[in-house]
Amino acid sequence: MDYKRTNAPLNTVTRDMIEMSQDTGNVYETVSIIAKRANQIAGEMKHDLEKKLQEFASLNDNLEEISENREQIEISRYYEKLPKPTLIAAQEYVEGKIHHRNPAKEKLNLD
To answer: Nearest-5° angle of CA 77, CA 80, CA 81?
Structure first.
C-alpha cells in the first residue's frame, strides 16, 4: 500500500471521539479498533522498509567497512516523512475503510 497517497495528516490532529464512535456506541471500542489497525499498518510499513533495506545488507558485518549509501538514506527519509500509523488508521476509520466486528456483541444478539 502506498501510504504517501493517503489523506492522513502529517501532524497530530484533535478529533471528536464521541462523533467518531457513533457506529460502535463506545469510545473505548473505537479507540481499540483504530489501535489494532495502526499496529497492522506499522507492521506492514516495517516489513516494507526491511525488504527495501535488505538489498543494502552486507554479508560481512565489519564495523570498519560499513559505509552509508545515499539510496539507503533516501529510503529511510521517505519512511520518516510518511504519516504515523495512528494517523493513517484514524483517517481510514473516518473514511469507513476499516471493517470491524465484535464477536461478543454478535453472540449477545444471537441469544
So the answer is: 90
